[in-house]
Amino acid sequence: MTYRIAPSILSADFARLGEEVKAVIDAGSDWIHFDVMDNHYVPNLTFGPMICSALKPHAKTAAGVVVPIDVHLMISPVDALAASFAEAGADYISFHPDASGHVHRSIQAIKSKGVKAGLVFNPAEPLDVLDWVIDDIDLILIMSVNPGFGGQSFIDSALRKIEDVRKRIDACGKDIRLEVDGGIKTDNIRRVADAGADTFVAGSAIFGKPDYKAVIDAMRLALAA
Ligand code: DX5
Ligand code: ZN
Fold this sequence. Notes:
Elements: E1 4-7, H1 17-26, E2 32-37, H2 49-55, E3 69-74, H3 79-87, E4 92-95, H4 103-111, E5 116-121, H5 130-133, E6 139-143, H6 157-172, E7 177-181, H7 189-195, E8 199-202, H8 204-207, H9 212-224
Parallel strand pairs: 1-8, 2-3, 3-4, 4-5, 5-6, 6-7, 7-8
The structure holds D-xylitol-5-phosphate (DX5) and zinc ion.
């Protein structure tokens, strides 16, 4: 299993975002997780496509290898802003199915821009929509907190949901990332991986500590155990 660690810049210093992206990439992050909130679908407001576009040139390693920008849309409606994020350099764009009037259309709108598409499931939301669209998507993101804020505690029922999603992905046979978002720390990441996740968002766990590399290394050590 190839594991990926995706630091969420929601917990970064917004006054120094470019430097923060560079620092966390130097510390070994695989992806940059970009939380978009609209004060409508969730009760908080963050950043839009212009910030994504400004950060895009910073999303590469010192050797020049591109680090994917993983855009998590917590917005409604979805399609117009998803298109703007595609133009702004997003590599993955994920949205909440309950935020779109036409889920299949939103997936197609993202993919038509050459961007990978994902679906995000809130803690109390069923997975039924996957019966109809799993073959069309590249990523499934399971929320292990309610969306809107960093620094919340991991909700344990997410583990059962991750197990369910892993079975669905294996049954469909497609290469689909299984990402988990919310309350991921060095001391629970192994349990989340054991449930079947392969990609881990972590905001406060990484940006809340002075040494980003120490946290990411500790996460990788836990995953290798
Ligand atoms: C919450 C966001 C998360 C958040 C996670 O709505 O989707 O990506 O940044 O933060 P932590 O890791 O602090 O729970
Ligand atoms: Zn997120």
